[in-house]
Design a protein that fits this description.
The complex is a heterodimer. By secondary structure, chain A is mainly alpha-helical. Helix content of chain A is 35%, strand content 4%. In chain A, strand 1 and strand 2 form a beta hairpin. Chain A is flat, with a radius of gyration of 23 Å. Classes of the chains: A mainly alpha, B alpha/beta.
C-alpha cells in the first residue's frame, strides 16, 4: 500500500506531533519504504495461528492491593517545570 | 598493567588482597574518563564524586566501578534517555536493577550515551552526542547501548548495564569487542528503566568477560513486585556454574537463514572459524532451519513501534523535562513539547506505531504481527528440541562509518535482522568476541532457550577461555 501525505499528517496529529511541509514530505517517503518492507507479513499464512502477547507464558500475576508510600513524592513533583499548587501540577485550561 | 584494564573478577581479587582500594580503582577510572572520553564521547554524565562513594561499598561487588546506560533511573542523577524531552530531569528513585547493584556495593561512575529512548543501532539518534567506536573513531559503536559498549571497550568503566529490545546489547558488543548478555524476557526487572517496547525490553550487561556477566546477572536477576512480568524462575549461582571445561555432549545448531546474501564475507569467515573452534571443543554442529527469520524483522517493526507509540504518549513536558511557555492551550502545549522534545527516529517510530494501531489497520498489521511472533517463537521451540544452543553472527556487518546509514532508516533497521528474532521469542543470548575483519571486531551470537542463562554462560565461557579475542584492546590514547 502507498502512504499519502494526508495520512502522514493525520497520524502526526493523532500522535501530537507538529510537522512542517518538508517533514511531511520526508516522513511520507521514509515511512512508505518501511511499510513497503513490512507488507512482507502478508505473504505469511497465519490462518488459525494464535497471537503472542506475552512470550514467557505468564498469566495473571496478581498480588495484594496494598497502599505503600512511594517515599519520594516531593522529589517527583519537583521534576516538573510547571507551577506547583497544593502538590499538584498546574497546566493551561483544557476546555 | 593498568588497573582499568582488569575485569570485575580480577579487580575483586586485588581488592580482596588489599593491593588496591575502592577509592583508588574508582579514581583510576575517573582519570581515564577525563583523559579519553573526549575521544569516545561515551558518557552523558560523569559522577565526579564517585571516588567518595566507597564508604558505603559493602557486598559481593564492593568497590567495583560501573556505569549505567542513561535509561536507568539513578537517584539524584540526571536520566535523559538521550532525549531533549527529558533534559534536566533528575531521577527521584533508583531502578530495581540499580538498587540491587548498589546494595551489592558497586560504585556508579555515571551515565552512558544511547540512541534516543534506545531507538537506533548506532548511537547516532542521541540528542546530545555521537559516541565513537574505540576501535576506529570514524565508526559507530553500534546501538542502542553504544555508550556502554564503547566505555567498556575503552576501559572507561569496569562494566556497564544495557538494555536489549531488538539487539541493543548484542550488536554494540559485536562492534566493540565486548561481552554482551541479553537475558530472557522477565529475568531482570524492568522497573525504573525507560520503556521502549514493553513486551520485548530486557535488562542486561556489557562486560569484559563472560565471568563478569555471570557475576552481575546473579545480583540483578529475580522476581520484582514492581514489574509484574518478572519470572519467579530460580535465580542460579551463575558464576559458580561456569564449570565446563569443553563443549562435549552439546549440540549447536547453525540456522541456514543467517548465512545469506548481505552477510559480510569477513564476518562470515570469523563466524565459520568460531563454529569450527566449538566443534574442536567437542560440540556437535548441526545445520538447522528457522524459517520465519526474514519475516521476524517485519513483525518487530510493527510490534515495537506500536508499543513505543503507547509508551511514549506519557511524555508531554508536563511532569518532567522542559516545557514551552508560549502555548495557547493544553493541547497546543502537548504538540509543542513533543515536537521540540523528540528527535526524528522517535517521531518515525511513534508515527509508525500510531499508524499500525489506527482504525482499519490494526488487524492488517498489528494482529498479523502478533501471529507471526507466534511462528517465530515456534521456530525456536522446534530448534531447541533438537539442539542445546544456536550460533549465528550478531550483525551482518562490522561497525559502519558514522553517517553511513543515518539517512536511510530502513537500511538501519536491517542491521538488526540477526538479533530481532530471538527478542520476539524472549530467549537469552550472548555476543562474545570471536575475531576481527580488517581490524574491526566481530561477535559470535549464542542463544539458549528461555531461562537457560546458566547453561548459556557456561558454554560461552568455554569458548572465551579457549580464545584470546576478548583480551584484545583498542589502541586509544
Amino acid at each position: 500500500m502507498k502512504l499519502t501525505k494526508e495520512q502522514v499528517a493525520h497520524i502526526a496529529k493523532l500522535a501530537r506531533i507538529n510537522l512542517t511541509e518538508a517533514e511531511v514530505e520526508k516522513f511520507t517517503s521514509q515511512l512508505g519504504n518501511i511499510i513497503g518492507f513490512i507488507e512482507k507479513l502478508n505473504e505469511v499464512d497465519t490462518e488459525g495461528i494464535p497471537e503472542t502477547n506475552q512470550v514467557t507464558g505468564l498469566q495473571n500475576a496478581s498480588r495484594e492491593d496494598e497502599v505503600k508510600p512511594f517515599g519520594f513524592e516531593e522529589d517527583l513533583i519537583a521534576c516538573s517545570q510547571n507551577p506547583i499548587v497544593d502538590n499538584q501540577i498546574k497546566v493551561k485550561k483544557s476546555i | 598493567m593498568e588497573i582499568t584494564s582488569l575485569t570485575i573478577t580480577q579487580t575483586l581479587q586485588l581488592l580482596k588482597e588489599k593491593k588496591t582500594s575502592p577509592a583508588e580503582v574508582t579514581q583510576a577510572y575517573l582519570d581515564r574518563i577525563k583523559k579519553l572520553d573526549s575521544k569516545t564521547e561515551a558518557y552523558l554524565y560523569i559522577n565526579e564524586n564517585a571516588a567518595n562513594d566507597f564508604f558505603v561499598a559493602t557486598g559481593e561487588l564492593a568497590g567495583i566501578p560501573i556505569a549505567y546506560k542513561d535509561v536507568f533511573n539513578t537517584k539524584g542523577m540526571p536520566t535523559t534517555a538521550a532525549s531533549k524531552i527529558l533534559e534536566g530531569y533528575i531521577s527521584p528513585y533508583d531502578a530495581t536493577s540499580v538498587e540491587k547493584l548498589k546494595n551489592a556495593g558497586v560504585i556508579n561512575l555515571g551515565k552512558l550515551n544511547t540512541d534516543e529512548f534506545t531507538m537506533g543501532s548506532s548511537c547516532e539518534t542521541s540528542a546530545y552526542q555521537i559516541t565513537k567506536n574505540p576501535w576506529d573513531l570514524a565508526r559507530v559503536p553500534g546501538g542502542s547501548s553504544g555508550g556502554s559498549a564503547a566505555a567498556v571497550a575503552a576501559d572507561l568503566c569496569c562494566a556497564a548495564t544495557g538494555s536489549d529490545t531488538g539487539g541493543s546489547i548484542r550488536q554494540p558488543s559485536s562492534f566493540c569487542n565486548t561481552t554482551g548478555l541479553k537475558v530472557t524476557y522477565g529475568r531482570v526487572s524492568r522497573y525504573g528503566v525507560m520503556p521502549m517496547a514493553s513486551s520485548l525490553d530486557t535488562i542486561g550487561v556489557i562486560t569484559k568477560s563472560v565471568e563478569d556477566a555471570a557475576l552481575l546477572l546473579k545480583v540483578m536477576a529475580g522476581k520484582d513486585s514492581r514489574d509484574a512480568t518478572t519470572s519467579d524462575a530460580k535465580v542460579e549461582d551463575y558464576p559458580a556454574l561456569l564449570t565446563r571445561k569443553d563443549l562435549k555432549g552439546l549440540r549447536i545448531g547453525i540456522p541456514k537463514e543467517y548465512f545469506v546474501e548481505g552477510l559480510d564475507k569477513g564476518v562470515e569467515k570469523v563466524i565459520r572459524e568460531a563454529i569450527e573452534t566449538m566443534r574442536k571443543l567437542g560440540a556437535e554442529i548441526k545445520e538447522i532451519s528457522l524459517p520465519h527469520t526474514e519475516v521476524a524483522l517485519a513483525a518487530y517493526y510493527i510490534i515495537a513501534p506500536s508499543e513505543i507509540s503507547a509508551n511514549l504518549a506519557r511524555f508531554d513536558g508536563i511532569r518532567f523535562g522542559p516545557t514551552v511557555s508560549d502555548s495557547k492551550d493544553l493541547i497546543d502545549m502537548y504538540f509543542q513539547n513533543r515536537t521540540k522534545g523528540f528527535g526524528d527516529e522517535v517521531k518515525r517510530r511513534i508515527m509508525l506505531g500510531t499508524f499500525a494501531l489506527s482504525a482499519g489497520y490494526a488487524d492488517k498489521f498489528y494482529k498479523k504481527a502478533l501471529q507471526v511472533r507466534t511462528l517465530v517463537k515456534r521456530d525456536f521451540d522446534n530448534a531447541f528440541a533438537e539442539v542445546d544452543f544456536i550460533a549465528t553472527p550478531v550483525s551482518p556487518t562490522p561497525a559502519f562509518k558514522i553517517g553511513e546509514k543515518v539517512n536511510d532508516p530502513l537500511q538501519m533497521y536491517l542491521e538488526d535482522a540477526f538479533t530481532i528474532p530471538a527478542s520476539l521469542a524472549g530467549i537469552c543470548g550472548v555476543s562474545i568476541p570471536a575475531g576481527f575483519t580488517e581490524g574491526l571486531p566481530v561477535g559470535l551470537q549464542l542463544f539458549a532457550n528461555q531461562f537457560e542463562e546458566a547453561k548459556l554462560l557456561a558454554a560461552a565461557q568455554v569458548f572465551q577461555t579457549s580464545t584470546d579475542y576478548h583480551l584484545q584492546k583498542p589502541k586509544i590514547s
